[in-house]
Amino acid sequence: MENSILKYKKNEYSQNGEDGIIEYIFNKLNIKNGNFIEFGAWDGKHLSNTYKLFLENWSGIYIEGDSTKFKDLRNNFEKETRITCINCMVGFNENDNLDVIIEKSNHANKAFDFISIDVDGLDYNILKKINIFLPKVICIEVNAGHDPLYDKEIPIHIAYNNVGQSMKVICDLAFEKGYFPLCYTGNLFLIKNEYKDVFVNDLKDLKNIYIDFLKYHTSEGLTHLIKTFIVNDKYNGFNFKNNTLKSYLIDKHN
Known about the structure:
Helices cover 35% and strands 14% of the residues. The chain is α/β, with parallel strands linked by helices and 254 residues long. α5 (123-128) links the parallel β4 and β5 (137-141). The longest helix has 13 residues, at 219-231.
């Protein structure tokens, strides 16, 4: 395979190889003991993109809206002075967006290196309202069913049902906030523009970032994508029409 960041994928606590990608990024940035935010954090360990960072002496904020899960989260970190646990839902209104939540928190360090956003559909809307506490690196969920170049914003009443927005729509917003896309694992990694020179040999356009994801996907994962987004006409009320995925599968078969 051609040069790809995805060769660094590995899971210690993450789901789709994010632990290895995060390690690669922060090694390149020479950040050893940073500061993170993750929500919905669950217990802070299960399929976490940040628990490995915590074990490496990072500080951070875990946010979990479910009260039962939050009890597990608090029990895991209540003796950790580096960690702030917050029981609330992160929204995109004036009184519940991430900026407001962080401003009200008692977390000592409010300069963040990494934020992990995974809220099953409304990630874009939440990112849109973050303007103060923007980190060096953002990891944000993007539904793999979307064609990476689909350029229409999906209405909230459809997006919230685990449909979300396309890579293109999220990147257009990220560009406005000063970020460029680096790679995609099912989560899209966005890096502040000031660090673009550090990753100059890793840069790809959106279509090739997505194709890279497909190349490094498991055969079982590709089968799931085919059954969910190609065979079926609609998924959760939205017709994905992923031409990049179709073309990739045709080329792979030939």
